[in-house]
Design brief:
By secondary structure, the protein is mainly α. Helix content is about 55%, strand content about 5%.
Length: about 500
């Protein structure tokens, strides 16, 4: 019996949203099969069995896999073939996905199988629900997928867990899969013909990672808007750059939303303009809504593509639940996810670059409107021996450069593989992994920018800043002390990364 108190989301009652995947990933909800989908799942399983009994040729069941589809198989070997597909794909390498990502993979694969087009048993779909409910998660190496024929190698680690093979994560511990299942009260499940193919042949890893990237990108866009407002305030810039009329004149929704967030933080009113030394601020402040707005405007079409993908039938072959027809096709191709992630990479990295440029304005006395070089707040005889944010700016520059380097689109590096059967592939999983890495780097650049603006508030004095700026400063200083003497700041950065995800600090995100 489960002791998981998390609320239940019925899977199959409606298409899953990105937010559903994220709450499953975090363990904030548990899935249960909607009763309406059970009949459809059983119908396609029976249709598959009937065709096998008639001796029909079905890819991956009575034939070999991939280019070996011309190889006929003795039906008596069907079960052995099913198990071997899992085992020979056990060649993933690299770091393993964190628990949140592994849980998202299970959730997305569940969304595919509840469509009832895969020919699997209801017991298998229920098993995915149990894995999420009990948080028994596959240990999945992140490397080894070309994104078509789906995510075969990484998804083989999910199939292996169901069978009781390889490793699993359970209650913070990595264990042999059979041990983890036993501790959770779940028995290994022997897979029937086509079931391993139904688990492995699809875009669930790239789609899961893309959902995580979507959520983090949305938070970054909100944080970047607040950070721009902080920088504008600390630099004593011109708040009129964010006047609503400017964004009505060229009404991209995302840049208008970003400008509104900045305007609200600054308390801007056209009749209450602060006298600024420059009539126009430099581009990294003045044009910030036009940079962050691109990211915000990218999110709705990315959502549409991802939610179609994660709710779609992405395996092959699929079975028509109405007629029982077996349809051989290519829904495992991850082109839409690859395109979405390659585009998101660019939008996110541009935000990192924007924040890095704002940091440069804060650290240089030429551009900071009176702040000391490198934001050194030390006073007294030993001031010259201290360096403030000098190295922090170097670190931010290094991370920004790495993020920008990773924006090369993965999808254009398609390679022919597997005896030229997979001769055009999406590279969607690599694109999603790149995007997550860019987000990780960008979040740390944003964290340094947050610390730098708060250092600026310390130097200016909270009374010289806007009320919202002072409120952010108070919350940051509750976690991270001011830099008054040279010391390590790596732990400050990690603490600030956590603060970036808190709506009470950065504001609540919303899409345009």
């Amino acid at each position: 019996m489960s002791h998981n108190p998390a609320p239940v989301i019925l899977v199959g009652a409606r298409p899953l949203t990105i937010e559903d995947v994220l709450v499953f990933a975090r363990g904030e909800a548990r899935p249960a099969l909607d009763p309406q989908v059970r009949g459809r799942i059983t119908a396609t399983q029976r249709a598959l069995e009937a065709r096998l009994e008639r001796g029909e040729v079905i890819y991956g069941v009575t034939t070999g896999f991939g280019d070996s589809c011309e190889t006929s198989l003795d039906p008596r070997l069907a079960l052995e073939l099913t198990v071997n597909l899992v085992r020979f794909h056990g060649c993933g390498t690299g770091r393993t996905l964190p628990d949140e990502a592994a849980a998202a993979v299970v959730a997305v694969r569940l969304a595919t199988l509840v469509r009832g087009t895969s020919g699997v048993r209801e017991a298998l779909v229920e098993r995915l629900c149990k894995l999420l409910e009990h948080r028994v998660l596959p240990v999945i190496p992140e490397e080894g997928s070309v994104g078509a024929s789906g995510d075969l190698t990484p998804l083989s680690y999910l199939a292996a867990l169901i069978m009781g093979e390889r490793e699993a994560r359970y209650r913070g511990e990595e264990l042999p899969a059979e041990v983890a299942l036993s501790r959770a009260g779940i028995a290994p499940l022997a897979l029937r013909p086509k079931e391993s193919l139904a688990i492995m042949n699809g875009t669930s890893v790239m789609s899961a990672l893309a959902c995580l990237a979507f959520g983090r990108a949305r938070r970054l866009a909100r944080a970047a808007s607040t950070l721009t407002a902080l920088a504008s305030d600390v630099l004593q810039g011109e708040a009129g750059h964010f006047d609503a009329r400017i964004f009505e004149a060229k009404p991209h929704p995302g840049q208008a939303l970003c400008a509104r967030w900045i305007r609200e933080h600054l308390g801007y009113r056209p009749s209450q303009r602060r006298a600024a030394r420059r009539v126009q601020d430099r581009y990294s402040i003045r044009c910030a809504p036009h940079v962050v707005g691109v990211l915000l405007d990218a999110l709705p079409p990315i959502r549409r593509a991802l939610e179609i993908e994660l709710n779609g039938a992405s395996d092959n072959p699929i079975i028509d639940p109405e007629t029982g027809d077996v349809l051989h096709g290519g829904n495992f191709y991850g082109g839409h996810v690859a395109y979405a992630m390659d585009g998101l990479k660019v939008a996110v990295a541009n935000v990192a670059d924007l924040l890095d440029r704002q940091l440069a304005l804060l650290c240089s006395p030429t551009t900071s409107n009176g702040l000391p070089a490198n934001l050194v707040s030390r006073t007294g005889h030993d001031r010259a021996a201290h360096h403030g944010f000098k190295a922090m700016q170097i670190s931010a520059s290094a991370m920004t450069g790495e993020a920008l380097k990773l924006t090369m689109p993965a999808s254009v590096f398609s390679r022919s593989t597997e005896c030229h059967n997979q001769d055009k592939v999406s590279m969607g999983t690599i694109a999603a992994r790149d995007c997550l890495r860019i987000l990780e780097l960008s979040e740390r650049v944003a964290a340094i920018a947050l610390l730098a603006t708060c250092q600026g508030v310390d130097i200016r004095g909270a009374a010289a800043c806007r009320e919202a700026t002072a409120a952010v400063h108070i919350r940051v200083r509750a976690r991270v002390p001011a830099n008054v003497a040279d010391r390590r700041q790596d732990r400050d950065i990690e603490a600030a990364v956590e603060l970036l995800g808190q709506p009470a600090v950065m504001g609540t995100a919303e899409e345009p």
